[in-house]
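Input:
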Amino acid sequence: MVAISSDVIRGYNDTMILSILLKEPSYGYQISREIKNITEGKYVIKETTLYSAFTRMEKNGYIESFVANQDLEGNGKKRTYYRITNAGRDYYLNKCLEWELTKDVVEKFIQKGEAYGND
Amino acid sequence: MVAISSDVIRGYNDTMILSILLKEPSYGYQISREIKNITEGKYVIKETTLYSAFTRMEKNGYIESFVANQDLEGNGKKRTYYRITNAGRDYYLNKCLEWELTKDVVEKFIQKGEAYGND
DNA sequence: CTGTCATACTACGATAGACGTAGTACGTTT
DNA sequence: AAACGTACTACGTCTATCGTAGTATGACAG
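Output:
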């Protein structure tokens, strides 16, 4: 069974989170579920990875946090929401460019499906 | 300027090295130059990364080392050559499959070139 | 024959993202 | 009152990569 190793994704968890925050502010649990849904269950981010990414990215100025209740009337649980900043948008776009370059590099060393099973 | 960060490549240096060893046994300096050539200078592996990859992969049984001279007459410098094992081939092919999966996952969060600059 | 350069490494410590384990706390449902 | 899902925080460990440094050999130039 082929699984996604953490080393591969390393450096792209932040990108995934930012990509979700591009649409609208969100919070930990929701982002986690979105990543799972978007990837059709192929990738599930670990809780500790997610929350430490928040801390790091807020420190770096890529996101901003604010606390809000579940609904507008002040009912339900309080949550920490995150909003992407302009610096975060720049970082995200740069990561997208980096990804294209990285993909080109790695793929020069990768054998595609067609190449298997000919011996 | 977009550069390849080490975090992105993390976990794929081994794959690159194995991909080169698939063709024939080789040694540090040559592998380093091959990676640079194949990627047209886009990626240059660090010496320490390369040699620690050798140690790790030999320990894991993916490669085997042997010492040989530069030419058959026993002239020239002695070098440590590495040869891929069957376990190394399996590992490599598995990494190729993993790469396809990873690529699919990451790309769900990446904006392509067309999407830039429309605001 | 002496110095410089390219080659061919080894040693060692630092970094940082990811992860394992654990625990807290609140709101809703049964 | 208990159980479950949500919403976190704390803390230590792991490990691929990297920075810096140093060693040693052979080739080649002056």
